[in-house]
Specification:
This protein has about 200 residues and is of the alpha/beta class. It contains 3 helices and 8 strands; from the N terminus they run H-E-E-E-E-H-E-E-E-E-H. It has a 5-stranded mixed β-sheet, covered by helices on one side. The radius of gyration is 23 Å and the shape is elongated. The chain starts with 5 loop residues before the first helix and ends with a helix.
Length: about 200
C-alpha cells in the first residue's frame, strides 16, 4: 500500500482550500428601476421639449451593487443583488419617462445626447442619497435645478427628500420603493415646469 508523505497531505489540503475559495456562488439577482406611469406618448412629436441631465451620483452609489444602510453611518453593498444597468443611466431613463407621461410630451430627452436638441427646459440633478433600509424605507435626496432655453441662468432650484416605505424586506420591494421616490421627484420637476410654461 502506498504511503502518502506529510508534504503531499499539506499540498492536497492547500489545493482543496484554494479550490473551495475560488468556487463561484450563485449568480447575482439583477434589478432595474421602473417608471411608475405606464402610458407612453407615441406618434407625431408633440408637447414641451425637456432635457433631463446631467445627473450626478456620489461615488459610493456609482457601482453595480445595490447600496443599503445598516446604520446612519454604515453602508452595505450587496454582491448578490445588483443593478442591471449603470444607476445613473437608470435614474435618467426613469425620470425622462415619468416626465414624458406627466407632461404629455414625447419630446423629453436624456442629456447629454450625441445630437444637439433644442429644449425649452433642462433639469440637472445632483443626487446625494439614493439608498434605503431593507424592510423599512427607500430614501432619495437630490438637489435639482431647472433651466430655461438659455441654460446659463437657473429658473428654479430645490432640494427634494423623499422617504418611501417598502412593502417587505426584499430587495425587490426596496427597488420598487426607490422607483416611487423617483416618481415623486419627477412630479415636483413637472410642477416647476408647468408653472413656468
Amino acid at each position: 500500500m502506498p504511503v502518502i508523505s506529510r508534504g503531499s497531505v499539506y499540498v492536497l489540503l492547500a489545493t482543496l482550500v484554494l479550490g473551495a475559495g475560488c468556487a463561484k456562488g450563485p449568480p447575482p439577482d439583477f434589478y432595474v428601476l421602473d417608471a411608475t406611469t405606464s402610458e407612453s406618448i407615441v406618434g407625431v412629436e408633440r408637447g414641451i421639449a425637456v432635457g433631463v441631465g446631467p445627473i450626478e451620483l456620489p461615488a459610493h452609489l456609482n457601482r453595480s451593487q445595490i447600496v443599503t444602510r445598516a446604520t446612519d453611518y454604515q453602508l452595505d453593498l450587496s454582491e448578490s443583488h445588483q443593478w442591471a444597468e449603470p444607476l445613473k443611466d437608470s435614474v435618467s431613463r426613469v425620470i425622462a419617462i415619468n416626465l414624458s407621461n406627466i407632461l404629455e410630451s414625447n419630446r423629453v430627452f436624456v442629456i447629454p445626447r450625441r445630437q444637439k436638441v433644442a429644449v425649452e427646459f433642462q433639469v440637472s440633478i445632483d443626487i446625494g442619497r439614493f439608498d434605503g433600509r431593507l424592510g423599512e424605507v427607500a430614501t432619495l435626496g437630490a438637489r435639482w435645478t431647472l433651466y430655461g432655453s438659455d441654460t446659463r441662468e437657473p429658473l428654479f432650484s430645490k432640494v427634494t427628500i423623499v422617504n418611501e416605505s417598502t412593502e417587505d424586506g426584499s430587495y425587490n420591494a426596496l427597488v420598487a420603493a426607490s422607483s416611487r421616490a423617483l416618481a415623486v421627484l419627477s412630479m415636483e420637476i413637472a410642477e416647476a415646469i408647468n408653472t413656468r410654461r
